[in-house]
Write a structure and sequence with these properties.
The chain is of the alpha/beta class and 268 residues long. The chain is built from 12 helices and 10 strands. It is globular, with a radius of gyration of 17 Å. 45% of the residues are buried.
């Protein structure tokens, strides 16, 4: 499974027509967001040639593992070596059935008969889910984290597990405008209990998290600036322990190709 070091994470399904340009720019993976199905992922596989396509993430409350395993087999047959099944429990505020997330993930993995562990990855933030991710999959897909999280995750997971980190960024040098865009993106996650817990484990306080997030928190989790300044933060994630970073430019529409081009010039 060739994730490479730098990929793209996109929240919406739109924009699949620009995949060949993303490939040409040097991005190696494309993460499909917004709780995608495997049918959603197929669209991106069909419209690209070399990208590894990953679900970021398939929500385990919305699918049956046997069905997912059968669909995975079809994608693995049709696009060998190019599909990574990312699964996760999401956050409690978005799922009425949410309970015992660790048990739910364990049961979901049990039901993925025929899906090799190195072709699946688990969304994970805290110690217990990170441990399960390393035990039952390729590793951990982390989201809405500052660079230091990669170091803590690497210490726990050891050298073999893959850490694939989403990093939202704002390609904007005006601090006020950039932080306004970053806070609009961050609002959902700052109100979600699992992300709040994770930020507190990293030393952020309620004062940092509430009210749209302190500048210190926002700048750490959603870096902004020139493409070169953003590239420094992406490299900090890699230096701290991440194997792969998928960038998510925010603030300039759902498929901001100008941002992807500028970031590629600085990163790839």
């Amino acid at each position: 499974m060739n994730l490479g070091q730098i990929g793209v994470w996109r929240r919406r399904m739109e924009g699949s027509d620009d995949l060949h340009e993303l490939e040409a720019l040097g991005y190696t993976a494309f993460w499909v967001g917004s709780s995608p199905s495997l049918a959603d992922a197929r669209v991106f596989l069909e419209r690209s040639s070399t990208l590894t396509v990953a679900t970021g993430i398939l929500n385990v409350w919305q699918h049956q593992p046997a069905d997912v395993a059968a669909q995975h087999a079809e994608l693995a047959r049709d696009f060998p070596g190019r599909f990574l099944l990312g699964v996760g429990v999401g956050h409690p505020e978005a799922t009425a059935e949410y309970q015992a997330p660790l048990a739910k993930m364990t049961a979901f993995f049990d039901g993925l008969d025929g899906v090799p562990e190195d072709q699946r990855i688990a969304a994970a933030l805290g110690p217990k889910m990170l441990a399960l991710a390393a035990e039952r999959s390729l590793g951990a897909h982390t989201y809405f984290v500052p660079p230091e999280h990669a170091g803590l995750a690497r210490e726990q997971l050891g050298p073999e597990a893959v850490i694939a980190t989403e990093v939202a960024v704002v390609v904007e040098t005006d601090d006020d405008a950039a932080r306004t865009a970053a806070r609009a993106y961050a609002k959902l996650y700052l109100g979600a209990s699992n992300y709040r817990r994770n930020l507190k484990r990293l030393g952020y306080s309620d004062a940092d998290i509430d009210g749209g997030g302190s500048d210190r928190l926002i700048d750490a989790v959603v870096p902004h600036g020139t493409p070169e300044q953003i590239a420094e933060v992406v490299r900090a994630h890699l230096k701290a322990g991440a194997d792969h970073v998928c960038v998510q430019p925010v603030g300039h529409g759902e498929a901001p190709m100008d941002d992807y081009r500028a970031l590629a010039a600085a990163l790839l």
